[in-house]
Amino acid sequence: MDEALPPMVDAETVVSERPRDHKAELRLWLRLLTCATLVEDEVRSRLRNRFDVTLPRFDLMAQLHKAPDGLTLSQLSSRMMVSNGNLTALVERLVEAGQIERRNSGSDRRVVNVVLTPAGSAAFARMASQHEDWIAGFFDGLDEAEIEQLMVLLGKLKASTRAAIHPTGPTP
Amino acid sequence: MDEALPPMVDAETVVSERPRDHKAELRLWLRLLTCATLVEDEVRSRLRNRFDVTLPRFDLMAQLHKAPDGLTLSQLSSRMMVSNGNLTALVERLVEAGQIERRNSGSDRRVVNVVLTPAGSAAFARMASQHEDWIAGFFDGLDEAEIEQLMVLLGKLKASTRAAIHPTGPTP
DNA sequence: CTGAATCATTTTAAGCTTAAAACAGTTGGT
DNA sequence: ACCAACTGTTTTAAGCTTAAAATGATTCAG
User: Fold this and answer.
1) Within an 8 Å CB–CB cutoff, is residue B84 touching chain A?
2) Any atom of strand C under 7 A from CB of A71?
3) ∠ CA(B35), CA(A85), CA(A48), 5° rounding?
4) For residue B164, what pLDDT band results from cuts at 50, 70 and 90?
5) H/E element holding A40?
6) Chain B closest CA to A79's CA: distance in Å?
7) Which tens digit of pLDDT belongs to each residue from A89-122?
8) Hey, are the CB atoms on A33 and B36 less than 8 Å from each other?
9) Spacing of B55 CA from C18 C1' in Å
10) Which DSSP letter does residue B3 get?
11) Window from A52-66, B33-47, B93-107 with minimum mean pLDDT
12) Distance from C-alpha of B43 to C-alpha of B29, rounded to nearest angstrom
């Protein structure tokens, strides 16, 4: 059918005049998701098999490790990008396991602070070192420059996505 | 202790002699995960609010859309990268909703084939078009060249990760 | 000081997810 | 034909996840 079009319009123009499809972006998104899933699933599996710990628990402990003075549940849910209600049970299980400790805030009785116990801190240090090596292994096919390029491009994507999600209305 | 070392060794050398840390890879992984989570959570939320459908259901329908002749449960679980047992309930709910149909394979009585119903196909087409626009919106801050670069770099990462996960032992 | 709005957390209901075990059907070697 | 190994699916138990509603605590304008 397209062969019958007058040859005045070249392929370039046809493309630019279409309502515009976004197949390239879609394929890129699927590839990004594939990479994330591959790595995440393998990390989950290794954490379970070698340390008998789940990925969400590891993530929570990682956040506490980065914040030695502890975090509130709200801070945790925001940094882990999970819902608030999620944390109640997760924290409960880690407390039972002796890895973390709940502390009531002195000033605000609504607030619950959470801190790693010494045992939790030691357990996390052991796991984190392995974890870092695993990640390095997954990225082994990329050289330093490529890692840097990816870092920059994903930085742009992060900003672009945030902008699309939280549109700043025109300030009148 | 290290301060007692003779000053023959400069910082550069010290770095290269360390067991090697992999902070750059780790930070890149966290950034990649952040991007994936940002996009995925927003897509999940829009699918729920605008089409009253969950992301896993959308994903399953997308796979069936790409395979008009239908897929077995094993094919689905492998393409969606989720566990086998996961699909049983997911398929059941979509069948109840009239979006898909189960068909027993003629040749192998173990196999269950799944196909979109006409209603499911129409519903998916409606959603997919919006979905594609949402994704394009998230990538709006990147130009064509950057999208292409990301595609290439993530292709490398995918290959590298697969290699790390399924090591091909030395063939003796 | 009081009540409305806000905030931090918990609860609830539904659904998703996995790993591992169980089941059922098929295949290949003898 | 037989049985062992394998394959495709389902079941089970435990845990994760979300959205939405509920609870309890704080803040602040009036």
Assistant:
1) no
2) no
3) 65
4) very high
5) helix A23-51
6) 10
7) 999 999 999 999 999 887 888 999 999 999 999 9
8) yes
9) 18
10) G
11) B93-107
12) 21
